[in-house]
Design brief:
- By secondary structure, the chain is of the alpha/beta class.
- The protein is built from 19 helices and 14 strands.
- The relative contact order is 0.12.
Length: 491
């Protein structure tokens, strides 16, 4: 997909175009490939699933991979801009949910924070979003955490600081044990397969508390990341038993990072460590994520607690509608790869839940009046128009006044497909009467059919009404504008 904020973006897709869209954002050091095990189940549930290689990764091109290059292009707000432009490039008017894992989680959070009109729900995975800065002048960080860690016995350092340095890319790309062995050890030690991962809440942001974190988060002071994880390389037997990341699957990551290196992803850390993220967020001081939100992580993932207080801030302040915090047993940091069935189940329970923000209880739709476009007499037409509604393209409809007033402003109804299956809940927002010739280009575009032009609307509707013997040049129509409350997924 070319022309996306200066990028040509490589995508993985599953499901049918026109279904409610899900945008899946990977973390570090990963790719869109990290979502491979959940994309099928989500698509089978009726979603159009889209997973891009993000800026700095994989098959996506157009980014500056130099250490001394355009680092600011990797700040969170520009990464969110990448996703906004990708949505538009795909011809979508909205995304039912943006789902981010690891460093993809803050990108998803920024998307939901600044464009709730585009991103209707958000799922944050493994990395809690602590919220926007408090209103007022920025405050300096308390204490010298780097000095505290360096004075520990043995001395330590934060992995984010190491990742922000000029040596990290070459250290990892040219790991002494080889790139495959390095990545195998890195993925293993952060997974539930390393049984020493027993995460817990930390009391505060201090050297002695952060020292409780494993060596892949708070590293030995003089170590590279390949050196820090080398002692945790799994045995050949453990590798053979690892079903969530076979050597063939690992090879996809190895080949990608051998080609691109790690600097693109590392520049994300440089923006965070350099304060660019905080400067951007000051514009949104005090603002909360308003769309429905879910947090998912592995129960054995230290990432949930590596930033003391972030989980609690997300639960209390950062989100106005945080539905649940789901910790998946038997999974560490790579939760959607380690336990894909459990993750898909958690995601679908959230994604298919009617929108409480708009006042729709979980089973309320079952009691609403149902209808199919074309009055159910033309199943193919009903399917086509239903898909346009689910995609957010069709937000208006009309019918002959002789068929009576079928709705009123504020009324909610269930849209069914050609087989009579409930597919969506809509709510009438405008209703009025017009002569056929009074319908304007704006309404024709909102109907979402054909070329979405007034000429095409007149041609198509005249043909349809003539087919049913009701057309007259001066015929009166009921003209309705509606909004999509949400899709209905049953079974």
């Amino acid at each position: 997909m070319a022309g996306v904020n200066g990028l040509t973006v490589r995508l993985l897709e599953a499901g049918e175009v026109g279904r409610p869209a899900l945008l899946l954002l990977h973390g570090f050091p990963e790719l869109a490939w990290s979502w491979r095990k959940v994309m099928g189940p989500l698509a089978a549930a009726g979603f159009h699933v889209i997973a891009p290689d993000q800026r700095g990764y994989g098959g996506t091109t157009g980014w500056d991979g130099r250490y001394d290059g355009d680092v600011a292009s990797f700040r969170q707000m520009n990464l969110a801009q990448d996703m906004v432009e990708l949505v538009f490039a795909l011809g979508l008017s909205e995304v039912w949910a943006v789902i981010g894992h690891d460093f993809g989680s803050p990108v998803a959070a920024h998307c939901a924070l600044v464009r709730p009109d585009l991103f209707r729900r958000v799922v944050l995975m493994s990395a809690p979003f602590g919220g926007t800065p408090a209103p007022g002048p920025p405050t300096a960080a308390a204490g010298d955490i780097h000095g505290e860690l360096a004075r520990l016995a043995p001395p330590r350092k934060l992995y984010q600081r190491y990742y922000s340095g000029p040596e990290a890319d070459a250290d990892m790309r040219n790991a002494p044990q080889g790139l495959q062995a390095f990545l195998r050890a890195y993925y293993h030690v952060k997974s539930a397969d390393w049984t020493a991962n027993q995460p817990r809440r930390l009391a505060g942001w201090s050297g002695d508390q952060l020292a409780e974190l494993p060596a892949y988060y708070v590293m030995p002071l003089g170590a590279t990341m390949p050196e820090a994880v080398a002692p945790y390389m799994p045995s050949d037997a453990d590798v053979a038993a690892c079903q969530w990341l076979t050597n063939e699957e690992l090879g996809v990551y190895v080949r990608a990072f051998a080609r691109t290196g790690f600097q693109g992803g590392l520049n994300w850390y440089r923006c965070s460590a350099g304060g660019l993220v905080g400067k951007d967020l000051r514009l949104f001081s005090g603002r909360k994520i308003a769309v429905p939100a879910l947090f998912v992580a592995g129960a054995a993932d230290w990432g949930v607690y590596q930033s003391p207080g972030a989980l609690e801030a997300m639960q209390k302040n950062a989100c106005s509608d945080l539905r649940d915090v789901r910790l998946i047993e038997g999974a560490g940091h790579w939760v959607q790869q380690e336990r894909p069935e459990a993750v898909a189940e958690a995601l679908l329970a959230f994604l298919c839940e009617p929108d409480r923000v708009s006042g729709l209880d979980r089973d309320e739709w079952r009691h609403l009046e149902r209808f199919a476009f074309g009055n159910g007499a033309e199943p193919e037409l009903a399917d086509e128009l239903c898909d346009l509604v689910l995609a957010g393209v069709k937000t208006a409809t009309c019918w002959p006044i002789s068929e009576g007033q079928q709705t009123e402003v504020g009324k909610r109804m269930v849209v069914t497909d050609g087989a009579g299956r409930p597919r969506a809940v809509i709510e009438t927002v405008e209703l009025g009467q017009k002569h056929f010739g009074e319908v304007d280009a704006e309404f024709a575009s909102h109907e979402g059919e054909g070329e979405r032009t007034l000429d095409d609307w007149r041609r198509m509707h005249r043909s349809y009404f003539e087919k049913h013997g009701v057309f007259a040049p001066d015929m009166m129509l009921w003209c309705e504008r509606f909004r999509l409350i949400g899709p209905i997924m049953t079974g």
